[in-house]
Amino acid sequence: MLAGACEGGMSLFAGMARAEEGIASADLFRIPYSVPAENLHLFRGRFYLCYQRGLIRWLEKTNPDALIVEANPRYLATPFAVKWMRARGRKVIGWGLGAPWPPSSLRDTPPISERNGGRWRGVWSQFINQFDALIAYSQRGADEYTALGFPREKIFVAMNAVAPKPTSPLDFRPLIFDQPSILFVGRLQARKRVDWLLRACAEMERQPRLVIVGDGPERAALESLAREVYPAAQFAGAKHGAELNPYFAQANLFVLPGTGGLAIQEAMSHGLPVIVAKGDGTQDDLVRETNGWQIPPEEYDALVGVMREALTDMNRLRRMGDESRRIVAQEINLETMVAAFVRALEFVR
Predict the structure, then answer these.
(1) What pLDDT, on a 0 to 100 scale, did the predictor assign at position 109?
(2) pLDDT at 122
(3) Is 99 helix (H, G, I), strand (E, B) or coil?
(4) Distance of alpha carbon 211 from alpha carbon 236, whole angstroms
(5) Do residues 273 and 286 touch, judged by C-beta distance below 8 A?
């Protein structure tokens, strides 16, 4: 969609995720305007760095009018790309999650001294100030960039989305039925906390139908746990695109007890209320008191309590689902995301 909005076309330079990230990557060779990068991964955890080979060769071949790069100081080739663009009088935009403090890789590694904290903030400030504009995934990310001294008028918010504005009629869900239905969609990996979802369903007085859509390294372990604590759980395997529609249509509530999950926005486009763990800030924009619940991460009792509250009032769930649909239709969708990118590009032109 973004490529279609660029009059002179677009070229994408991207590398594959590391195996331990549990991310299923698209086949870049099937995307006409994409060029695969060779990612060199250095160190791990708080010391992780990445160098992308071929970045300058790609710039020389495509000769772009403007460049959008991931705003992450761990990417070692980015300053060279910025320098290449600057030498030709071209503009560079950083696109990122924000500049959280402490960074996620350090949050569980106390103590963090005031001196080291200042040094880290200094690295972030120097890094982002090389850009002509910034695009943030979320409003929280925009606030974090502002706190580091980047001019607010140069920051654009393109809230993360995977679904376009809904055009089809809202899925019909009866108010009277024998059993409420809970849906999870995502990669089956430990950080998604699907094990907690299985255990929480077992604690409900009115036990729901639980459908788990997805695949991943934890599937066998989760199926084994389900046989023990919640045999009624259904594992549908990986589904994509239109294959997901029947699952969204049959659900009453979408639950993501762990981190991540672009499927939240897609579930909302189908008129579902949502329960999600607080995370990187993108949830703050999507999930509000009027359409769902945000729970503290790593607090199982909070998940149980909110699920119990949600399933006691199906009329309220229906109203919250209507609000989810409105948010996606009017505020957070692929079209508004692309529009924010276009505004940033026009700003630096």
Answers:
(1) 38
(2) 83
(3) coil
(4) 7
(5) no
Tokens found for residue 59: 């710039």
DSSP element (H, E) containing 14: strand 12-14
The architecture in CATH of the region 2-161+333-348 reads 3-Layer(aba) Sandwich (3.40)
Neighbours of 169 (CB within 10 A): 7
Residue with tokens 């690295």: 123
The whole-number pLDDT of residue 213 equals 97
- Report d(CA 139, CA 332) in Å as an integer: 12
Confidence of residue 102 (pLDDT cuts 50, 70, 90): low
Least confident among 91-105, 283-297, 326-340:
91-105
Write out the two tokens for 266: 């897609």
Question: How many angstroms from the chain centroid is the CA of residue 281?
Answer: 9
Euclidean distance between the first and the last CA atom of the chain, given in angstroms as a whole number:
20
In which element (H, E) is residue 215 found? none
Q: Residue 140's beta-bridge partner residues?
A: none
Quote the mean pLDDT of the chain. Answer: 89
Judged by DSSP in three states, 237 sits in strand
Helix (H) / strand (E) containing 6:
none
Specify the CATH number of the domain 181-330. 3.40.50.2000
- The three-state secondary structure class of 201 is helix
**173-204 pLDDT tens trace:** 776 667 899 999 998 989 899 999 999 999 99
DSSP-assigned beta bridge partners for residue 1: none
From residue 247, alpha-carbon distances to 6, 121, 239 in Å are 35, 44, 10
Distance from C-alpha of 9 to C-alpha of 184, rounded to nearest angstrom: 37
Q: Where are the domains of the chain?
A: 2-161+333-348, 181-330
Mean pLDDT of 250-271: 90
155-157 vs 133-136, strand pairing mode: parallel
Asked if 14 and 36 count as a contact pair (C-beta separation under 8 A), the reply is: yes
